[in-house]
Write a structure and sequence with these properties.
The chain is mainly alpha-helical. The protein has a single domain, classed as Tetratricopeptide repeat domain (Serine Threonine Protein Phosphatase 5, Tetratricopeptide repeat, Alpha Horseshoe). Helices cover 75% and strands 0% of the residues. The protein contains eight helices and no strands. Helix 2 packs antiparallel against helix 3, helix 3 packs antiparallel against helix 4 and helix 4 packs antiparallel against helix 5. The chain is elongated.
Length: 133
């Protein structure tokens, strides 16, 4: 069904979600479709569904820093700061290093407002700077 009141990009997102859901239904561990589906759910504001996908991905790819980064984003968006903090620590432990992006990613605003994260992040930045010299 095509809703003429929706902007074209909304139709595209709806189509992409539907397409990825069908792919994942046929193959629940199809990584490219799962990654895209998680991103699309988040883009659409469907944070619970995005979290479900990210949790599934973390089981399938337990050493992938980007999986844990996205999981931290999902938890942060749902105000689950403790879980977001644990997930971002795992992301960094697994090798996530795009700290400039982390500092400005709106999905992590709730996490960045947590004092534990701020203390931890300062320690990480100091350690990374020391390792670079």
């Amino acid at each position: 069904m095509y809703d003429e009141d929706l902007p074209e990009e909304e139709h595209d997102v709806e189509f992409e979600i539907s397409f990825c859901e069908k792919l994942v239904k046929n193959n629940p561990n199809f990584l490219p479709a799962l990654r895209l589906l998680g991103d699309l759910y988040t883009k659409k504001g469907m944070f619970d569904k995005g979290l479900h996908v990210d949790e599934h991905l973390s089981l399938l790819q337990p050493n992938d820093p980007f999986v844990y980064y996205n999981l931290a984003c999902s938890y942060s968006l749902l105000n689950q700061t403790d879980k977001a903090f644990r997930s971002i620590k795992l992301a960094i432990k697994c090798g996530y290093r795009d700290f400039d992006y982390l500092k400005q990613d709106n999905d992590l605003t709730n996490l960045r407002n947590d004092y534990r994260f701020r203390r931890y992040f300062l320690r990480v930045l100091k350690r990374v700077k020391q390792e670079a010299h």
